[in-house]
Amino acid sequence: MKILWAHSHFGFGGGPKTILTWAIGLRELGHDISFIGHGGRLLDSVIENNFNYIHLPNWKFRPSISYACKIYKLGKKINPDVIISVGIHSSMEASFAAYLLKKPILFIFNLSPRDRLWISNKKWQFPQISDMVVVNQELKDICVNNYGWGSDKIHYIPERIIPQKILCKKKDTIESIAIIRRLDNVKCVPVIKFMDTILSFLQVNKNVSINIIGDGEGYEKVQVKSNAINSILDRQAVNCNGYIDDIDKKLHNYDLIIGTEKVVVESLLFRKPTAILKNNGELIPITMANVKDLSNNNFTGSHFDSLTNSSVEDIINKIESLIEDEISALGQWIENSFSYKIGVSKISILLEKISSPKHFIKKFFFQLIKMYCSIFVNLLRKTVK
User: What strands lie across the sheet with 176-180, from one edge to the other?
Assistant: First the structure.
């Protein structure tokens, strides 16, 4: 099957890596894929894997009618059997192109759960045009409960991992800790909250260092906080390392990995002790007793009680007490449950479903027009203010 895949930005984070992994798997099944988007740090990996890639200029205002037209023009040229779009803006743009091309479309929303996906006024909400893939059960529940989408068209597919050949050995003590997280204005907040709790732990454990890996608009806020802690301790205990290329291949450098979502999955796959960083800054150590429950929400921990009243030192001690066999069992569970081959098989079946019989989005066209208009009105209001 020939696929036109609209993914606007292959940036740093688990989402773009998931898309690339699924694309590799779908190609292994015989699908022919062409990407269209405007770059990002992971773009080199897309090109190195020999995917067709059509570059779009980076446009400030999204969704963009210009992008929709370019997707349409590329679709006219290659005549795909189906269009795949990733994320909110790309899905709006690709939906217009799909309408003009009379092609079916599949949405992939590899987003973290959030209270609001579209404009708050229900009249302007994104219509349930076609089937949608999500990597988080909580996001599916939000779409069903808050937006009235039919659950039969929202497909929870968390399987997106290529097994690793390099496996790590657990150390008896934890000295080097890595927090891996994109540091945009929202996602930096849990990191800062966690840093508020670690001073006494670092004062006692002088051999421990914390490495914060990631960047974004909130990077400077995190750096200011780490500098303050280092000043009090009179040592370089907290390091802001920024973005590191291929960090998923360098996890063996650390004794404990802290993060959410795909970072957690990759860390467990490497057989590393791993903890989830919740939005409130608390940690959840992952064990065989809780891994299945935590996986249902893509390892965000949002629905899971933390170790109430437990100090950072208590949690680190609990993680250190995990035996090698349990760490190994966690990694094997991830391999069995999250293999990308399971995920791409499900997606391939979905693509067949929506392309035969043909799913056409004509009845949703005016809803899309109305939503576009509402967004432009909002932009004009903000510009006037």
Answer: 238-242, 209-213, 176-180, 256-259, 274-277, 283-285
Report the phi/psi class of residue 322: left, alpha or beta, with left for phi > 0 and alpha for psi in -120 to 50.
Answer: beta
Q: Do residues 338 and 157 make contact, with C-beta atoms less than 8 angstroms apart? A: no
DSSP tag of 274: E
Give the C-alpha separation, 53 to 47, whole Å.
7
pLDDT of residue 30: 95
HSE of 333 in the Cβ direction (CA atoms, 13 Å)? 20
Domains in the chain, ordered, with CATH?
A: 2-162+340-384 (3.40.50.2000), 176-338 (3.40.50.2000)
C-alpha distances (whole Å) from 49 to each of 41, 110, 137, 248 are 14, 21, 30, 17
CA distance 118 to 324: 45
Nearest to 150 by CA among 130, 170, 136, 123: 130
What gap in Å lies between CA 148 and CA 153, rounded to an integer?
12
pLDDT at residue 349, as a whole number:
94
Asked whether the beta carbons of 309 and 317 are under 8 A apart, the reply is no
pLDDT digits (tens, 9 = 90+) for 236-285: 999 999 988 888 888 989 999 999 988 999 899 999 999 999 989 999 99
Rg (CA), the chain: 22
DSSP string, 112-135: ---S-SS-SSGGGPPP--S-EEES
